[in-house]
Amino acid sequence: MRLDRSEVHVWLTRPEAAQGSERLRGYAALMTPDEREKQARYYFERDRHACLVTRALVRTTLSRYVSRRPDAWRFEKNEHGCPRLVPEQRDSELRFNLSHTDGLIACAVARERAVGVDVEHTGRRGETVAIADRYFSAAEVRELRALPQSRQRDRFFDYWTLKESYIKARGMGLALPLSQFSFLIEDDTGESVARDAPRIDIRFDTELRDDPLLWQFELERRSPQHRLALAVRKGEGPRLQVQVEEIVPDGGG
Known about the structure:
Layout: E1 7-13, H1 21-30, H2 33-40, H3 45-62, E2 75-77, E3 83-85, E4 94-101, E5 104-111, E6 115-121, H4 132-135, H5 138-146, H6 149-169, E7 181-186, E8 199-204, E9 215-223, E10 226-233, E11 241-246
Parallel strand pairs: 1-11
Antiparallel strand pairs: 1-5, 2-3, 4-5, 6-10, 7-8, 9-10
Helix pairs in contact: 1-3, 2-3
């Protein structure tokens, strides 16, 4: 499958859609012993299943673009724990990023570009708006608190998924302080994640030494419970074409 440098592809799957003993055996055959060991450490069956589907998604996705069997891909982690291809497999110039949440898994792929993706389940339990003061920039906290209370939780997930996508694209995870950059989200309706894609800008504190004009961000609601954000370093050229498709990974044969 062709992937031009002007494109980013995002592949989504819902773990509950990946069923059938033959399909799942095919997924399991793709994994390395280390991956199988990691999967076995999950206590709940649904988490073991999601781990299996995640590994199948990234392996079969990469093999869409390169003539390499899905079970042949090898991965490592950088100094911040972010996954990447091993050096001998980077000749394909592919960059990828993964994210998973309850009910949704995402794999973003670009060529020669830093890319990060995040998906979140907005109905999850636990604190949301209450932790903004700790993690968000002062500008984001002010904007969040200025909204009617009924809209604050929704906007919180807008910010959270965007921030996660950026720090993942940078390959630094939470080593990059979330308070040192701010997102500005503009839409015509005043509703979070409008029907038409909102305009998203980013501002950096001087400590980060990054250029807002080099980045492109996408934000959308995939379902009433799921938020998706994408960050890609587009460079000084025009906006990139982003294609999002929902699939069920094949067995990778």
